[in-house]
């Protein structure tokens, strides 16, 4: 966090910067329920972003396959922000990995799955690059979809500053709006980047890159099998010649089902077959019926059935296809040491001896406040027990003789601290209730004594 960064937006407490670019700043944040999220605060005229409130609502309805879903947004306030799921893992570019074989197919399937879900919701990404594909622990995830003003996606607007020209479709360079076909072009360029580690159409100037996008075809020698043909078709200069994202996904998952069939226990077989496993007898009735198969009808049952239906060219619904793509993409998992604040705090707490743990709650409660509406805030306090402060050196910031929580979000990110705060608040409430009861008892005794005096003396009140 730097000077001027907000500490809180709506119900989300910001813990630190994840990144900053032309379009805005992205923060790690925690909701009031402790959920870890990513909050994007876009740059530019707030009035422009207010017009995207409807699109933000649509983005929240995108099917949750290979995307970091939008969970909340406030584009009407003076400081607009968008909240999405937090994905622990580097971007495809940051990871510095060159993928090949099955891993490259899984990456391609993951991005195609995300685009299919986005397009099925009636949206366009408009900004797909290796920077907007995160290699998460549960598989690749596409971020930052949809919420880009359309004026930023054409060359006819003076506001445009192209951030990733090598992934920009040719029609955008000629003044057309970026549509679903432009996303497919970016898919092809992103898959090629994953296979080579270099941006396609690379050149020394924007003009040279534009010329390459408009006039030349990149070398696809690093690609093989069906993926090479799919990328070539995705990079077609004519947007009408490109396949839809769903067609790309269908080709990828069907090839995966044919080449790597599952055994009866659900594990992948090691043998390869160009013709595929075909449809086993227990699927014949479903195939002959010709009824579109939904996720509910198939997934959750035998994994061999899923692959058999894909390999046998059975009629499929979009939700089944998305689930199959997500299942394929999950094979590309990226371990990442990116613990949440609560995990860091709990590890530091576990390292304390029993006596130190007894006083840790009192130390942290010095740094916390609770407002009348029940919201938890932070404050500075005199530096308490040195050993406790040292044990939590990355979570407690010293300010001379005082100290404070380094992250205002910590009370929401660390369940143990939330428990201490709630227990302390309950204790103060109980004490307050006892004090009120004693006061009421005293007042009642006084009133009773006064009434007795009136009865005995006959003096009117």
TrEMBL record:
Keywords: ATP-binding, Kinase, Membrane, Nucleotide-binding, Transferase, Transmembrane, Transmembrane helix. Residues 12-258 form the Protein kinase domain. It comes from Streptosporangium carneum. One of its GO terms (molecular function) is ATP binding. The chain crosses the membrane at residues 437-456. Signal peptide: none annotated. This is Protein kinase domain-containing protein. Pfam families: nSTAND1 (PF20703), Pkinase (PF00069). Residues 260-280 are annotated as: Disordered. InterPro entries: Kinase-like_dom_sf, nSTAND1, Prot_kinase_dom. PROSITE patterns: PROTEIN_KINASE_DOM (PS50011). The keyword Nucleotide-binding applies. Gene3D superfamilies: Phosphorylase Kinase, domain 1, Transferase(Phosphotransferase) domain 1. SUPFAM superfamilies: Protein kinase-like (PK-like).
């Amino acid at each position: 966090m730097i000077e001027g960064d907000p500490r809180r937006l709506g119900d989300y407490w910001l813990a630190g910067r994840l990144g900053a670019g032309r379009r805005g700043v992205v923060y790690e944040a925690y909701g009031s329920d402790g959920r870890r999220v990513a909050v994007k605060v876009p740059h530019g005229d707030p009035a422009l972003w207010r017009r995207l409130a409807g699109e933000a609502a649509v983005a929240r309805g995108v099917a949750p396959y290979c995307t970091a879903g939008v969970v909340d947004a406030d584009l009407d306030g003076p400081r607009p922000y968008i909240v999405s799921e937090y994905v622990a893992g580097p971007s495809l570019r940051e990871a510095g990995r060159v993928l090949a074989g099955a891993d490259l197919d899984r990456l391609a399937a993951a991005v195609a799955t995300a685009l299919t879900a986005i397009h099925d919701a009636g949206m366009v990404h408009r900004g797909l690059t290796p920077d907007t594909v995160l290699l998460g622990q549960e598989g690749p995830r596409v971020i930052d979809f949809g919420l880009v003003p359309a004026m930023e996606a054409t060359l006819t607007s003076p506001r445009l500053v192209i951030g990733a020209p090598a992934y920009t479709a040719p029609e955008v360079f000629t003044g057309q709006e970026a549509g679903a076909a432009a996303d497919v072009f970016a898919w092809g360029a992103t898959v090629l980047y994953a296979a080579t580690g270099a941006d396609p159409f690379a050149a020394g100037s924007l003009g040279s890159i534009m010329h390459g996008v408009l006039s030349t075809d990149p070398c696809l020698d690093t690609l093989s099998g069906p993926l090479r043909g799919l990328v070539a078709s995705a990079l077609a200069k004519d947007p009408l010649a490109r396949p839809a994202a769903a067609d790309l996904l269908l080709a990828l998952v069907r090839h995966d089902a044919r080449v790597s069939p599952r055994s009866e226990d659900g594990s992948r077989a090691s043998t390869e077959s160009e013709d595929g496993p075909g449809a086993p007898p227990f699927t014949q009735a479903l195939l002959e019926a010709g009824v579109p198969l939904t996720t509910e009808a198939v997934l959750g049952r035998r994994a061999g059935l899923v692959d058999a239906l894909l390999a046998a060219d059975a009629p499929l619904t979009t939700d089944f296809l998305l689930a199959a793509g997500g299942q394929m993409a999950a094979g590309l998992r990226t371990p990442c040491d990116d613990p949440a604040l609560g995990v860091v705090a709990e590890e530091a707490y576990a390292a304390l001896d029993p006596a130190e743990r007894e006083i840790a709650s009192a130390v942290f409660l010095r740094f916390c406040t609770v407002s009348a509406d029940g919201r938890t805030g932070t404050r500075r306090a005199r530096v308490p027990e040195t050993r406790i402060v040292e044990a939590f050196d990355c979570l407690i910031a010293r300010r001379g003789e005082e100290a404070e929580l380094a992250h205002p979000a910590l009370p929401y990110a660390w369940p143990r601290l939330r428990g201490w705060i709630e227990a302390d608040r309950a204790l103060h409430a109980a004490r307050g209730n006892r004090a009120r009861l004693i006061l009421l008892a005293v007042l009642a005794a006084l009133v009773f004594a006064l009434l007795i005096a009136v009865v005995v003396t006959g003096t009117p009140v």
